[in-house]
């Protein structure tokens, strides 16, 4: 009798629920699961000859050393020059900087901001981010999507002190600002070895070739002279955080 009951309508509901859970799990996964213990990226390999890779090929495991799994690029604060337009720096540890992260679905970033410094509004279309403040305090926030039924364009922001963390949902526009009187630093964790970064000022005003100034002027309710000035400025910083 127990078998008969399972094979009834409840069984169909259970199957549908199981399928839904599996689909949701697949959608939420930022990167696919690796098929081996590790795949140290071979950055010397260039796609071509009729094929292109989604990611990086693996280095020969026989040549892998313990040093491949160590990254030293986040330990020191950056010196921020007066020419820096945002008063901030970002040291990236993505797969292209730390090949050991290839296929592992994780990445790190160190941010350093002088007083008044900002990390301009941007998105990571491929990853959720956790910002852990290690020094000073920062104003951190994100804006919900315009089509969020419950909270369209709602701002979620606050002051985050050293030892505290702030989570930013995948793909949403977010920012950081040092409103304090001393330098601030963070270590950020992202659930993709290549999270993607799109800074709004650089994407819109630093694009190559340039976005039509008439389109941007209409979109931001300003004149084309203002747009041209912004394009002239930001076109010089297109590789600021590469």
From TrEMBL:
Residue ranges of the TM segments: none
Highest taxon of source: Eukaryota
Residues at which Mn(2+) binds: 122, 124, 129, 174
Sequence positions that bind oxalate: 124, 129
A GO cellular-component term linked to this record: apoplast
Disulphides: 39-58
GO biological process assignments: plasmodesmata-mediated intercellular transport; regulation of root development
Keyword hit for Signal: yes
Signal peptide range in chain numbering: 1-29
Record-linked InterPro entries: Cupin_1, Germin, RmlC-like_jellyroll, RmlC_Cupin_sf
Alphabetic keyword roster: Apoplast, Disulfide bond, Manganese, Metal-binding, Secreted, Signal
One MF annotation (Gene Ontology) recorded for this entry: manganese ion binding
Location within or outside the cell: Secreted, Extracellular space, Apoplast
Domain Cupin type-1: start-end pairs: 69-228
PANTHER family: GERMIN-LIKE PROTEIN SUBFAMILY 3 MEMBER 3
Family statement drawn from the similarity comment of this UniProt entry: Belongs to the germin family.
Name the UniProt record assigns to this protein: Germin-like protein
Organism: Marchantia polymorpha
Lineage: Eukaryota, Viridiplantae, Streptophyta, Embryophyta, Marchantiophyta
């Amino acid at each position: 009798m127990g078998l008969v009951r399972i094979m009834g309508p409840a069984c169909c509901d259970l199957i549908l629920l199981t399928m839904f859970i599996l689909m949701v799990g697949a959608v939420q996964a930022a990167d696919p699961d690796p098929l081996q213990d590790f795949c140290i990226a071979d950055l010397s390999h260039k796609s071509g000859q009729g094929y292109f890779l989604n990611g990086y090929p693996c280095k020969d495991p026989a040549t892998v050393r313990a040093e491949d799994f160590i990254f030293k690029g986040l330990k020191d604060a950056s010196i921020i020059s007066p020419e820096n337009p945002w008063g901030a720096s970002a040291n990236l540890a993505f797969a292209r900087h730390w090949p050991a992260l290839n296929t592992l679905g994780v990445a790190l970033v160190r941010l350093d901001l002088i007083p008044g410094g900002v990390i301009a509004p941007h998105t990571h279309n491929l990853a959720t981010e956790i910002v852990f403040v290690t020094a000073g305090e920062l104003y951190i926030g994100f804006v919900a999507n315009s089509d969020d039924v419950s909270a369209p364009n709602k701002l979620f922001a606050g002051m985050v002190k050293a030892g505290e963390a702030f989570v930013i949902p995948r793909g949403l526009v977010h920012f950081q600002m040092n409103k304090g009187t001393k330098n601030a630093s963070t270590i950020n964790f992202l659930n993709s070895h290549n999270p993607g970064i799109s800074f709004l000022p650089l994407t819109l005003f630093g694009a190559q070739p340039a976005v039509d100034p008439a389109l941007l002027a209409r979109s931001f309710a300003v004149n084309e002279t203002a747009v041209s000035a912004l394009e002239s400025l930001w076109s010089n910083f297109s590789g600021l955080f590469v």
